[in-house]
Amino acid sequence: MTSIRTNVGAMVALSTLRSISEDREIAEGRMSTGQRVGKSSQNAAYWSIAATMRSDDKALAAVQDALNLGAATMDVAYRGLSFAIGVVDEIKAKLVAASEPGMDRLKVNTEIDQLKGQLQAIADSASFNGVNWLQIRDGSDTTAKVAASFYRDLNGGVFMETIETKLWDANGSITSLIDGRSTGTQGEAGILTSTRFAGMAGSTTGYVLVVNDSNRGSASEIELTAATTTDQLNDMIKTVDGMLQMMADSGATFGAMQSRVAIQTEFMSKLRDWMADGIGTLVDADMNEEATRIKALDAQEQLALQALSIANNQPQSILSLFR
Question: Is 99 exposed, middle or buried (0-12, 13-18, 19+ CB in 10 A)?
């Protein structure tokens, strides 16, 4: 039926135009923001997942910063230890030279004193951002820790993991150089202050390279006098050699941590890239697809306008029958 009061064709064409306009607005919004899901009303589940993942990505960025900070702290400690090994090696060479007949041991001792002062300076200054892994002080942590990762389990719980190693273990190895604690600890937390190396060398004297409040009274500082005997000198050499072996082990420990931190840093960088890809898969718009859709909507809009024009002209055709 044809009616001059109700133009069904025009109504359909107008409805089509409204639909095209809405679709065009959505497509243009995606083109301008680059997002397919920009708010929760568009897809509540995907928006929620993306928001959580973005939050986790910020936490991972903080972990990356912590890894870089830990790597710098570790690098300072490792380099300080490397220099200290060279100094202790020099002290050992001086002690060996002092065992030669006719050698002026007092002059050699003057050189050794300077080298011992250098060891203290290395241990004091091998600090980064207030953290010093080569010297244990009152209240300081005896474990070297570096933030390693952040993750979320299936139940929504969040966890932090760390890369860590003991700087001192009463029953194991010693990584730090000096026990700088004020209480009488027999210098056990530092390679240069512990009497254990003299004991391992079979010496009845607790020889150490650094005497301080931690070991004063139980340790004897390695030094040469005119009265130093050959047996005492041999004990000193063996003690210093034991310290060098432990320092080499300490360097290996730091090296292993550096390697792991480097691997973890690279993994964290890739993990963040993977998370960004995952978020993009959920909420990002396909720009090629949206551009193509807009062009298609342009064509549909032109056709709908033509259809509306035709529908609006139809009543005029009917009125011409009455002329």
Answer: middle
Asked if the structure places residue 54 within a domain, the reply is no
Give whole-number Cα distances, 79 to 50, 84, 92, 120, 303, in Å.
43, 9, 20, 15, 75
CATH code for the domain of 168: 1.20.1330.10
Same domain, 150 and 22: no
Burial class from Cβ neighbours inside 10 Å (0-12, 13-18, 19+) for residue 307 reads middle
What total of structural domains would you count in the chain? 2
Q: Is residue 51 part of a domain?
A: no
User: How many other C-beta atoms lie within 10 A of the C-beta of residue 152?
Assistant: 14
- Give the global pTM: 0.74
pLDDT tens, position by position, for the chain (323 residues)?
566 566 677 777 777 878 887 777 777 777 777 777 777 777 888 888 888 888 888 888 888 888 888 889 899 999 999 999 999 999 999 999 998 887 889 999 999 999 999 999 999 999 988 889 999 988 888 888 888 877 777 777 777 788 888 888 877 789 999 998 887 788 899 999 999 999 999 999 999 999 999 888 889 999 999 889 999 999 999 999 999 999 999 999 989 888 888 888 888 888 888 888 888 878 777 777 778 887 887 788 788 777 777 777 766 666 666 65
Same domain as 112, residue 27: no
Domain that includes residue 317, residue range = 8-34+286-322
User: Cβ of 21: how many Cβ atoms within 10 Å?
Assistant: 13
